[in-house]
Amino acid sequence: MKTPGQIKSELEQFCGTENYYKYMNIMFTDGIKHLADTCECYWLLSVVASWQADSRVKQEEFQVFKLQVHEDKTAIITIEDGNGSVVAVQTLDYTDFCLDEIVLWYSSVDRILYLPSEH
Fold first, then answer.
1. Domain boundaries, the chain
2. pTM exceeds cut of 0.90
3. Cβ atoms 7, 39 nearer than 8 A
4. What would the pLDDT profile of 35-86 be if each residue is shown by its tens digit?
5. Are the beta carbons of 92 and 73 closer than 8 angstroms?
6. Alpha helix ranges (H) inside the chain
7. Which of 43, 60, 106, 114 could form a disulfide with 118 if both were Cys (CB 3.0 to 4.6 A apart)?
8. Which CATH number applies to 4-118: 3.30.460, 3.60.20, 3.10.450, 3.40.50?
């Protein structure tokens, strides 16, 4: 099993993407695929996809999803507009996500979810 440090290091290596994958109503990159496979967190892609039905989030062309996991395994997902303004917040009663935090970027124009390093 990989350590959180190893996973973070691997994720930082992704720059651009060669492939796009479809999941529900969104597309995602090689880096997101690696994250979802390594951390077994396709549920996180479902969270991003489901928020696209919310009018407050959907209207933002650029979205920042920040997941922060607490020591008691509860978590909070903050959705921002890219300028630091919070658009929505979701709390999770429990998560087994293997990292203490992750930031994902989403373009509602292209419907693509990607890692910041892939921009």
1. 4-118
2. yes
3. yes
4. 999 999 999 999 999 999 999 999 999 999 999 999 999 999 999 999 999 9
5. no
6. 4-12, 30-38, 42-51, 55-58
7. 114
8. 3.10.450
